[in-house]
Design brief:
With 135 residues, the chain is mainly beta. The strands form 2 sheets. Strands 1-7-4-9-2 form a 5-stranded antiparallel sheet, with no helix packed on it. It binds thymidine-5'-diphosphate (TYD).
C-alpha cells in the first residue's frame, strides 16, 4: 500500500494565556520558501472550487477559520480530508488533482505557495490530468 495522499502537518503552537499563535516557517512546518500567499473566503453556499492540478507548485493549506473538505486524486486513488482547525496544515505537492467542497460560510482557507501565480502551471482538464499522471 503506497503512502497516503493526505499529508497533514501539525503547526507549532506558541500560544499562551492570552490566546493562540500558530507559526508556519521555513525549516519548521514549511518544506519550501513561500513566494505567494492567498486565502479563499466568503465562498457562497454550495460552491466547490479547485478542479485542477499543478505541474510544479507546492502548497500548504491551512483552514484558519471554519471548515472545508479537500479531496486529492493522483490519477489512480482519491482521498479526502476535512480541514477544521488552524493548528494543522495540508501539504499538497505537484501532480495532484484537488477539489474543495463543503465550505462552511465562515471558512477562511489560507494557502502558502512556493511560486508566483502562473496559469501555465495549471492542468484544468481532468482527462488531460489523468494522462499526465500516467505518463
Ligand atoms: P483558481 O486557482 O482557478 O481558483 P480555485 O482553484 O480555487 O477555483 O483561481 C481563480 C482565479 O484567480 C483564476 O482566474 C486565476 C486567479 N488567480 C490569480 O490571479 N492569482 C492567484 O494567486 C490565484 C490562486 C488565482
Amino acid at each position: 500500500m503506497s503512502a497516503s495522499l493526505i499529508q497533514l502537518v501539525d503547526i507549532p503552537q506558541r500560544g499562551d494565556a492570552r490566546g493562540q499563535l500558530s507559526v508556519a516557517e521555513l525549516g519548521g512546518v514549511l518544506p519550501f520558501a513561500v513566494r505567494r500567499a492567498y486565502w479563499i473566503h466568503g465562498t457562497k453556499p454550495g460552491v466547490s472550487r479547485g478542479f485542477h492540478a499543478h505541474r510544479q507548485l507546492r502548497q500548504l493549506c491551512v483552514c484558519v477559520a471554519g471548515s472545508v473538505r479537500i479531496s486529492l486524486f493522483d490519477g489512480a486513488r482519491e482521498e479526502s480530508v476535512m480541514l477544521a482547525t488552524a493548528t494543522q496544515g495540508l501539504l499538497i505537492g505537484p501532480g495532484l488533482w484537488r477539489e474543495m467542497h463543503d465550505f462552511s460560510p465562515d471558512c477562511v482557507l489560507m494557502v502558502f505557495a512556493d511560486a508566483e501565480y502562473a496559469e501555465s502551471d495549471y492542468i484544468r482538464d481532468r482527462e488531460q490530468f489523468i494522462k499526465h499522471a500516467q505518463a
